[in-house]
Write a structure and sequence with these properties.
Largest interface: A-B, 19 and 18 residues
Shape of chain B: flat
Number of helices of chain B: 8
Helix content of chain A: 40-55%
CATH architecture of chain A: Orthogonal Bundle
Distance between the termini of chain A: 18 Å
Mean pLDDT of chain B: 84
Low-confidence stretches of chain B: none
Number of strands of chain B: 0
Structural class of chain B: mainly alpha
Order of helices and strands of chain B: HHHHHHHH
Strand order of the largest sheet of chain A: 1-2-3
Mean pLDDT of chain A: 86
Order of helices and strands of chain A: EHHHHHEE
Distance between the termini of chain B: 29 Å
Largest sheet of chain A: 3 strands, antiparallel
CATH superfamily of chain A: lambda repressor-like DNA-binding domains
Low-confidence stretches of chain A: none
Radius of gyration of chain A: 12 Å
Oligomer: heterodimer
Structural class of chain A: alpha+beta
Helix content of chain B: over 70%
Number of domains of chain A: 1
CATH class of chain A: Mainly Alpha
Strand content of chain B: under 5%
Chain lengths: 76, 292
């Protein structure tokens, strides 16, 4: 079971914003955004909510669970 | 920032020239003393003036490098090395003064000053190493400056966090190297204990200063905001790693000691343990933080 995300896609849809810009907007470092995007770091609920609020989307539209049985959440 | 880099570049070249000039002057003075001749006062004043200027350059350099941490959000290993060697080299300048005073006293009674001269020349090698690191840092940072002009300023810094850990790794490596370097000399036991303790304190100073700077930058933040959540996870994992390594390491050491396989020199054990812990903690934190 793995948490995956559409963060990269969301950033590009949002005027091709950079990782640093998103990091500044949600109050974390660029490395954290990079780690979340690559799936190497699972964000806290607070950070996931902050990111979702920033993109004006629901959390499930950005983050979803990918397991062997299938995808749970909002994979686009 | 471009101006401060140019200023630092000039300082590093000046420091290199001063150190080289001082080394040449001291080699000449050593030769004169070995021939039992007297040294002109102006030469002694010149060496003193050079040392004062070198000390001043060290102080200005560390302030300028520190100011770069605020302006440049990109991490730079040469900047961390410059901080460590600047502090270390500055303290060795103080040792130079003490050693030269000792040489002066010994020269009056025609005593042996070979040991003192060796220390002075070793110190000057460290001063030259520092000026070279500073020079290379100034030359390489121009490129990263050009890149950072197009990148955004980071609100939540990672440069200070990474720099403190890089300083920790470099401090620990230099510390361990220096402690084992001291072992190659035949130093009487009474002096060796004090020397190792003093060396450990001086070598740990850059790390303490870096941590102090980091704390100063966090003054206005609440403790929960000191770390970014990934940074917090990384240091927590690093702390767990240290706990495991310490328990296993100490267990093995205790086993070997109680079976009489090794003898423990406590004056050596403590600084080595301190530097190993610092190396493992900073190294693991850096590795985990950069792994992503």
């Amino acid at each position: 079971m793995k948490l995956e995300n559409n963060l990269r896609k969301c950033r590009f849809e949002h005027d091709e914003m950079t990782q640093q810009e998103l990091a500044n907007a949600v109050g974390v470092t660029r490395l954290t955004i990079h780690s979340v995007e690559t799936g190497k770091f699972v964000p806290s609920t607070l950070l996931a909510l902050k990111i979702a609020r920033f993109f004006r989307k629901r959390v499930e539209e950005i983050f979803y669970i990918n397991d062997e049985e299938g995808v749970t959440g909002g994979k686009e | 920032m471009k101006k401060s880099i140019r200023f630092l570049l000039i300082l590093s070249i000046l420091l290199l020239c001063l150190t080289a000039g001082n080394t040449a002057m001291l080699m000449h003075m050593k030769a004169v003393l070995q021939m039992n001749l007297t040294i002109g006062d102006w030469k002694s004043y010149m060496v003193a003036a050079f040392i004062i200027m070198m000390a001043f350059i060290h102080l200005v350099s560390v302030i300028v490098i520190g100011s770069h941490l605020r302006k440049d959000s990109q991490e730079n290993i040469l900047r961390s090395a410059s901080i460590v060697f600047c502090v270390f080299s500055f303290f060795l300048l103080l040792v130079d003064v003490v050693m030269l005073q000792e040489i002066g006293k010994e020269a009056l009674i025609v005593g042996d000053t070979m040991g003192e001269w060796n220390i002075v020349f070793f110190n000057h090698a460290v001063h030259i190493l520092f000026s070279l690191i500073l020079l290379i840092y100034c030359l390489t940072v121009k490129k990263s400056l050009l890149e950072s002009e197009t990148s955004q300023h980071a609100l939540k810094d990672e440069a200070v966090f990474l720099t403190v850990n890089q300083v920790g790794v470099i401090t620990a490596v230099v510390g361990l190297g220096f402690i084992f370097f001291l072992l190659s000399f035949q130093i009487p036991d009474g002096y060796a204990v004090g020397l190792r303790f003093l060396a450990a304190l001086i070598l740990l100073l850059p790390y303490f200063l870096a941590v102090l700077y980091w704390i100063c930058t966090k003054q206005k933040e609440k403790p929960v905001e000191w770390y970014d959540e990934k940074q917090f996870q990384d240091i927590s994992h690093a702390a767990l790693m240290i706990l495991l390594v310490s328990v296993v390491g100490m267990g093995i050491l205790y086993g070997c000691y109680s079976k009489g396989l090794i003898t423990l020199d406590l004056s050596l054990f403590f600084p080595v343990y301190l530097f190993l812990v610092l190396l493992s903690f900073s190294g693991t934190t850096l590795y985990l933080n950069k792994k992503a």
